[in-house]
Each structure stands twice: as structure tokens, then as C-alpha cells.
């Protein structure tokens, strides 16, 4: 999972929203989409669609999913 988290951080740094969605989706699939759907109130179909390389989830969806997966998004000032 460390490698996937590194890829999530790279996607954030590079403003690659589709890669971010895909990498979060990888962790979601490992943990189980049905469980995640129950916890977030989002359908499995929505999760699979939005957390793909072609997905374009809204920020709220990303934050809800990341929170449920035990991940957080933070902010730093660029140098």
C-alpha cells in the first residue's frame, strides 16, 4: 500500500486528478467496494466508475472515500 500512497501523493503534486482517482480506487478495491459503498452511501457502480483512470470524481467524493479508507489529504505551501 505504501507504493500506492506514494503514487497518490505524486498525482496530487502533478495535479493529475484521474491518476489520483485511480490510485485511491486501487486501495478501495483492495479493501472491498461493497464495504466502502455501505460506509459512504455511494453505489458500487459509482465507486467503480469514478475511481477509475477515466473517472472524474468531485472533491467531496474523493474526500469521503479517502476518509473511509483511513487516508487524509493535507495541504503544504509550495517552495
From TrEMBL:
One of its GO terms (molecular function) is DNA binding. SUPFAM superfamilies: lambda repressor-like DNA-binding domains. It comes from the Bacteria. Pfam families: dnstrm_HI1420. InterPro entries: HI1420, Lambda_DNA-bd_dom_sf. This is Addiction module antidote protein. It comes from Vibrio metschnikovii.
